[in-house]
Amino acid sequence: MKILLFDIDGTLVYTGGAGLRGMTRAFEDLFGIPNALEGLTLAGMTDTVIFKNACKKAGIEFSENLHKQFKLRYLDYLQEEINRPLPGKKVLPGVPELFRVLQRRPNIYTGLLTGNYQTGARIKLGHFDLNRFFSFGAFGDDHCDRNQLLPYALKRFHKAFNRDINGAVIYVIGDTPRDVECARPHGAKAIAVATGDYTEAQLQEANPDYVLKNLNDIEKFLSAISEDP
């Protein structure tokens, strides 16, 4: 049995910057500070950490109450922004085709491991009609530390399918070194995909098990996961 856990932004889709704009609008609403996320690292971060870093940059003391207010406003704005006809907004090469193939493979289960809030993840994937491929996952509101997310996905896998994970080979697929890093504490394999902000050479420095240019080469992806029992 193989469990494949996919990142979203830069791995499956480009939203045309909808998330960044939604967060920027929500932060300005709450604190009156425009462009508060400018200069912050977003790739591979959880949404909670992005908000915490924006607060730190602006000299604002983080609190769970403020975080809750920000999250609710952001999700409203994200729904608006994702529907705009923005340049660069697209499903990445090979993604729908790959998942149609994976769905036909017995004992392969596809889930999510993403820094997005759960509702935000579903908004993004729903816009591109990709939610149907993911019945379980782990999200940025499960834990602020991406390295702690994988067990949440496995608990939801067990609940969804009532299957034990003993003997399962688990893969984390993403476009940043943080996707590679979050697999390691849990003994999972890491497949890095150079469709985001990092080149194949940069991703190779994180020592993933496999590096792919994109997900368009379905045979190469299948070959990577078939190397393990």
Major β-sheet profile: 6 strands, parallel
Q: Give the CATH level 1 class of the largest domain.
A: Alpha Beta
Overall, the morphology is globular
Radius of gyration: 17 Å
Residue share in helices?
Answer: 40-55%
Question: Based on DSSP secondary structure assignment, what is the total number of beta strands?
Answer: 8
Oligomer: single chain
CATH fold title of the largest domain:
Rossmann fold
CATH-scheme architecture of the largest domain: 3-Layer(aba) Sandwich
- What count of domains describes the coordinates? 2
CATH superfamily of the largest domain: HAD superfamily/HAD-like
Structural class: alpha/beta
Poorly predicted residue ranges: none
Order of helices and strands: EEHHHEHEHEHEHEHEH
Mean pLDDT, as a whole number?
95
Query: What is the rounded distance between the termini?
Result: 8 Å
Q: What proportion of the residues form beta strands (DSSP E)?
A: 5-15%
Count of helix runs: 9
Major sheet: order of its strands?
Answer: 5-4-1-6-7-8
